[in-house]
Amino acid sequence: MADRCTQGECSKNEVKTPNSYRRNTHILFYGNCVMPALAGDLTVFLVTAMIFEIDPRIIGPDELRADPKLAEAADLTYETSQSGVRAMLPCALSYVPVSQVIPSATIAGLARRVSTPKSSLRDRVLAKQFAPGVLRGQVEYLFDVGNWSQYFKSEPGKVYGTMLMMLQLPFSQGSVHIPPKSAAGPPTMLTKPVIDPQYYGGEGGGVDFDIMTAGQKFAAKICSTAPLSNIIKSRVFPPQQGATADEEDFTDFVRNFTASDWHPVGSCGMGGSAGIAAGVVDDRLRVYGVGGLRVVDASIMPLQICAHVQATIYAIGEKGSAMILEDRRVGG
Ligand SMILES: Cc1cc2nc3c(=O)[nH]c(=O)nc-3n(C[C@H](O)[C@H](O)[C@H](O)COP(=O)(O)OP(=O)(O)OC[C@H]3O[C@@H](n4cnc5c(N)ncnc54)[C@H](O)[C@@H]3O)c2cc1C
């Protein structure tokens, strides 16, 4: 059974599950409707966007948006021959093992920082990505035509390309919570949650920061290597500071211009063998301590995967609905 919330932040219709004292999991009830667990342990991909001025003959999404005639011509070409810019995905991406981005001695140092006796179980599990010989695509590099940065303002008449760097297995861990009761009353179904991704927070966050900073050099190297370099005129954000990427320092760029890459997971993570001590749902997606309540979405993934998450979430949906039907048949 769920216990009534005792922290004074919740509405009268809100309860906290028994594990709430460690995990701070809240559940809101509205008549027959349940708004499940807005909880801690949120993990979001981190992303930076380097911007390059590229060959002005290349037409990308920014140019189509800015010029209705160009867009109309592109639409016509696509309708008549299924070709042209509308038929292209002007984007290249790769998942690169961290061992190819950062020297092995540096990686060993990173691993030590998150594998101490005081490190959390989660950090120690994540630290296994640094073991010698482990090849995972922890760092995603994606080059696309267009200016993807929310921080860099395009100049009219110039064509831009973006090199994104995304950290797939971050240690940074934030939270998403129902806001405290305010003067306007208790939270309702329409109340927006309070989201704090805590990028680069704590020792693990420091490790993320160092990987993101070192990884910018690799991003710059990709862009200065043919054939990609053949379409690049210059880097405009952050402006190039040295003759080669190795001479550059990307610390301020990463500190000031990291953003969310929109793949939140973990806020109702599956507890696994550690059960309620480590998670919100069991291996059949049932919320610990609450009868008749499951969570079937991205939030049950305790950790990120080295990929965009959508396909995995489809599998979670399929598997979750199959389990609900199975348990109904056996009266579970
Ligand atoms: C801009 C953007 C780009 C992305 N690009 C990619 C990508 O390229 N590849 C990829 O793999 N992933 C991508 N993602 C991530 C992916 O979309 C999400 O991880 C995924 O949709 C999460 O699935 P979900 O079922 O957990 O939640 P959602 O898809 O968010 O579904 C939640 C549903 O619950 C509904 N809902 C919310 N509140 C209530 C309520 N109170 N009552 C009833 N219903 C409610 C919402 O309307 C929504 O339909 C992107 C995300 C964003 C935001």
Automatic annotation (TrEMBL):
Q: Which co-factors does it depend on?
A: FAD
Q: What is this protein called?
A: Glucose-methanol-choline oxidoreductase C-terminal domain-containing protein
- From what organism does this protein derive? Lophium mytilinum
Give a GO molecular function annotation for the protein. flavin adenine dinucleotide binding
The alphabetical list of record keywords is: FAD, Flavoprotein, Membrane, Oxidoreductase, Transmembrane, Transmembrane helix
Q: List, alphabetically, the Gene3D superfamilies matched.
A: FAD/NAD(P)-binding domain, Glucose Oxidase, domain 3
Q: Which residues form the Glucose-methanol-choline oxidoreductase C-terminal domain?
A: 170-317
Q: Where are the transmembrane segments?
A: 27-52
- Provide the family line: Belongs to the GMC oxidoreductase family.
Q: Does the keyword Metal-binding apply?
A: no
Going by the entry's taxonomy, the superkingdom of the source organism is recorded as Eukaryota
Q: What is the lineage of its organism?
A: Eukaryota, Fungi, Dikarya, Ascomycota, Pezizomycotina
